[in-house]
UniProtKB/TrEMBL annotation:
SMART domains: SPRY. Residues 121-321 form the B30.2/SPRY domain. InterPro entries: B30.2/SPRY (IPR001870), B30.2/SPRY_sf (IPR043136), ConA-like_dom_sf (IPR013320), CTLH/CRA (IPR024964), CTLH_C (IPR006595), Gid1/RanBPM/SPLA_SPRY (IPR044736), LisH (IPR006594), SPRY_dom (IPR003877). Residues 411-463 form the CTLH domain. This is Uncharacterized protein. It holds the Pfam family CTLH. It comes from the Eukaryota.
Length: 562
């Protein structure tokens, strides 16, 4: 499983990427073998291939497996057309609950059809950029590269492709010099802040292998790859054979010396856009800053160069930990910057309500009020009371914050929906906020969907409500969702399916969030609380700031989460 390296999670880039991935994963179906099969069975039932009464085939695993095989090889439309009488149920009339599935929905997660705003309204966005994950195979270059793109071998540079575990490519000018170079599939932009990778020498001389690791200008065309020999502009290499640090900047070569490395050694190379340096490590030991980055360098890409009879394995940090403690390295810069922030004196400022903030105590009190309003805004009545209790224990003399009527309604609404009391929740909304559901058909539909899913153990009631919903919600988008939900009847245990779990977890929570937002708007309450607006404003300042140190912090992780 590929993960974001732990050191990147300490930085703004990694924290934002992690939250983005969590949101994506929350809406996607798991891709295990059983989950894929279950999804196919669900689609087969909604197409009508399993007949008008799919429940009667639940225990016929051979029959289901045969249909799944056809479905996988031909797709739903062709699979349906290919069916012979031996596959079709004797009942020729199709229940009106089951209709043909449009091709546009094939392969999509049923839960993806119920898209609403993310639960976390504080989630920041950033231009996602992929991280290096493997070495590329340059055209006509001669070396062996493993299928995962992490191991390179030049043990036998004249060897042709003879196994399925590797590929061989050729590049004449590299072959003539017996130097074989490649670079990573993605470059590293300065907005990441700090980046690091390691290489283990699998085969080479103990006294110093003909291997060089480093970086080059990431804005160069893909076909241009530096040999890291000190002849290419904006390329920096650390050589194992003699321990030399070679670069070519401003029309001149630069050569210095560090430690040699060879067989079984693990060497690392990182780029630090905070202090504009490239640093190196050997066997977990920090060897220092090897090069200085030009001030105009915005992007670099990892590069490796090997002579004949060498092989390496690469760690980009996605599947295993590093030998060097890169987390501590990042922490040293991060804590230094956080200390600077904490020591920053708050300037005197007057708020819109006339309240003056002169020191940290005034700021603390103002933030406490914002947090109280945030709890009230979200309907977190219990959290608000607990927060006020904590403040009183700290000696705060603030009077308890009065909760609005809407807060109690939102709290009760959350309880009803989480308890699957959908009818009671619907009546609460209708009686408290007349016209809200009538003006938001999508919300009413999702409430009914939750009610339908909760009836899955009672087939008669499920089908009755589903028929009513199909006649009430005629929009094609709603019809497709109802078709997906009808597939739940095909399972011995519908509660164990991906679709059921998606509704009862993610969709239910998103519905609650959407309802609370609509209640706020209906009551004249801003969509975002003052606290959320403050965080968004601070985050925007961080993004727009030119200080490279800001890549070290994430507003949500470092200053908001408690």
């Amino acid at each position: 499983m590929i993960e974001i390296p732990s050191y990147l999670l300490k930085l703004r880039y990694g924290a934002v990427a992690q939250r983005t991935l969590q949101q994506i994963c929350s809406a996607e179906q798991p891709k295990s073998k059983d989950d894929v099969r279950d999804a196919m069975v669900s689609q087969l039932s909604t197409i009508g291939i399993i007949g008008s009464n799919p429940v009667m085939f639940r225990k016929n695993e051979d029959y289901i497996d045969k249909l799944v095989d056809i479905f996988k090889s031909k797709g739903p439309a062709k699979a349906s057309a290919m069916l012979t009488d031996e596959f079709v149920n004797d009942e020729t009339e199709t229940d009106e609950l089951v209709t043909e599935l449009d091709d546009s929905s094939v392969g999509k997660s049923p839960s993806a059809a119920l898209k609403v705003e993310p639960l976390d309204s504080l989630a920041t966005s950033t231009d996602h950029q992929s991280l290096p994950s493997r070495w590329i195979t340059p055209k006509e270059c001669q070396f062996e590269l493993s299928l995962d793109g992490l191991e390179i071998s030049t043990k036998n540079p004249t060897k042709s492709v003879s196994s399925s575990s590797s590929i061989t490519v050729n590049l004449p000018h590299h072959a003539r010099s017996s130097i074989f170079s490649t670079k990573a599939d993605f470059s590293v932009h300065e907005t990441i802040g700090i980046y690091y990778y390691e290489v283990e020498v699998l085969f080479g001389l103990n006294s110093g292998s003909e291997i060089t690791i480093g970086y080059m200008d990431g804005d160069q065309p893909e076909e241009i790859i530096s040999s890291l020999r000190g002849h290419d502009e904006n390329a920096w290499g650390y050589k194992g054979k003699d321990g030399k640090l070679v670069s070519f900047e401003e029309c001149r070569s630069s050569v210095r010396t560090s430690c040699k490395f060879g067989n079984k050694d693990v060497v690392g190379c990182g780029v630090n856009f905070i202090n504009r340096s490239i640093f190196i490590t050997k066997n977990g030991v920090f060897l220092g800053e090897a090069f200085s980055l030009p001030s105009n360098m915005k992007r670099v890409v990892p590069v490796v160069s090997l002579g004949s009879w060498n092989s390496i394995s690469t760690n980009f940090g996605h599947t295993k930990s590093f030998r060097f403690n890169i987390d501590n390295y990042v922490d040293s810069f991060k804590l230094r910057f956080l200390k600077t922030i904490n020591n920053y004196k708050i300037p005197s400022v007057t708020l819109d309500n006339g309240r003056e903030i002169r020191d940290s105590n005034d700021m603390k009190n103002s933030l406490s009020q914002m947090i109280k309003k945030y709890f009230e805004h979200r309907g977190y009545a219990t959290a608000l009371k607990s927060f006020e209790k904590d403040l009183s224990l700290e000696g705060s003399e603030d009077t308890p914050y009065p909760l609005r009527r809407e807060s109690y309604i939102k709290k009760k609404l959350k309880h009803l929906i989480s308890s699957n009391e959908i009818d009671a929740a619907t009546e609460l909304v209708k009686s408290s906020f007349p016209g809200l559901l009538e003006d938001n058909t999508d919300i009413q539909f999702k409430l009914d969907c939750l009610k339908l899913v909760n009836m899955v153990d009672s087939e008669e009631q499920f089908i009755k409500l589903a028929k009513h919903m199909k006649s009430a919600y005629v929009w094609e988008h709603y019809q497709k969702i109802l078709n997906d939900l009808s597939g739940l009847l095909a399972y011995d245990d519908p509660t164990a399916t991906v679709l059921y779990k998606s509704f009862m977890n993610f969709e239910r929570a998103r519905l609650v969030h959407k309802l609370c937002m609509l209640i706020n708007l209906k009551s004249g309450i801003p969509a975002l609380s003052n606290f959320e607006q403050l965080i968004h404003a601070a985050d925007s300042m961080v993004v727009e700031g030119n200080d490279p140190n800001t890549t070290l912090i994430d507003i949500v992780n470092d200053f908001v989460q408690i």
